[in-house]
Amino acid sequence: MSINKEQVKTALSHVLHPVEKNDLVALGMIQDLIVQEKYITFTLEMPEQNDELANDLKKKCEGAVHKFIDREAIVDIQVGLNISKNNGQQKKTPVQPVDGGLLSGVKHIIAVASGKGGVGKSTVAVNLAAALARTGAKVGLMDTDIYGPSIPTMFDLFEAPNITTQKKLIPLEKHGIKMVSMGFLVDANQAMVWRGAMVTSAVQQFMKDVEWGELDYMVMDLPPGTGDIQLTIVQTVPLSGAVIVSTPQNVALDDVRRGVAMFNKVNVPVLGVVENMAYFTPPDMPDKKYHIFGEGGAVKLAEEMNIPVLGEIPLEMPIRESGDKGTPIVIADEHSNAAKAFIATKDKVVTELGKLSGKAPKVEIKFK
Ligand SMILES: Nc1ncnc2c1ncn2[C@@H]1O[C@H](COP(=O)(O)OP(=O)(O)O)[C@@H](O)[C@H]1O
Ligand SMILES: [Mg+2]
Q1: Which of 108, 298, 333, 363 is most buried by its number of CB atoms within 10 A?
Q2: Same domain, 68 and 140
Q3: Considering 94, 129, 150, which residue would you say is the last residue of a domain?
Q4: What confidence score (pLDDT) does residue 29 get?
Q5: Is 19 in the same domain as 68?
Q6: What is the 8-class DSSP label of residue 171?
Q7: Residue with the nearest Cα to atom 14 of ligand 1?
């Protein structure tokens, strides 16, 4: 049986504020309540910052849901600060974590997005991360494509990550890239039934509860599409910029427009478009370029929308094969045309990031 909001409110009305002598629902402290089947999430709005009280109330809320509704319900509570209850101001400020902010040790966070699946978003994310790591930069890769996590396959990593005594997850590491994927934690069939709020909460945990340490770059593989889930993720993460992956067909280009619109809406700079599967070069005719899906579409579109083209990646069998075997092409064969195309894309991404901050990112470059 799925749970409804009224049941949750009734359960939470059993939790009393120790000083106000009233319950949390009556005090208006339960906000943004979302209930999806057995998953419950809301913001506990505190009139003043008091971590001890907030933690105590969180435990009591969870206990009330388990006692009055369902032992198995998943309760996810964010704590917010509502100063207006205190001094008449209208502003709602989220409580900042003690470490100074989410992913505060990460210099640049780059989202890799696409309008639809199968265009090579993960392939680009993985090779971009690998190309950055090759320069000696400290790189993280966060797979938020909960429905189709492909990072485990693309790195041939299927083990569960370790957890520290502080209950923080230690990212897996390969080829100098620290990574976390839902694919490490749940099996794909289980994730298929996840709804928006659960995905957002998982992404928040990937930011809060993972020992990322200091990173120069974090590359995020977003779920394909430009719907509510993607919009929520890009609002949740302090992104530096977005890379949009497309194939050259006109239909795919419409998706790029939607992608650009989504990032504009939340004021995340679009670094540019990567045209994947841009052309095919037969191995025995290295000078030929066959534009199987049409030519120049992404370039025209980028001009029209005033965004840069970050790279054109050829359609090549070794790209898929290396992905399936668990070693990105940039690492498996760094002298191949495909690897060169990804490395050139990385250079352009770094340049565009540099333009944003007004100076080139402070990353030590030590090529092999
Ligand atoms: N440029 C390319 N050349 C050959 N195969 C590619 C290329 N880009 C992606 N692929 C393959 O296409 C499939 C889909 O790519 P993937 O990166 O998983 O897409 P998405 O993350 O957008 O769903 C994968 O099997 C991948 O290896
Ligand atoms: Mg993918």
Answers
A1: 298
A2: no
A3: 94
A4: 93
A5: yes
A6: P
A7: 118
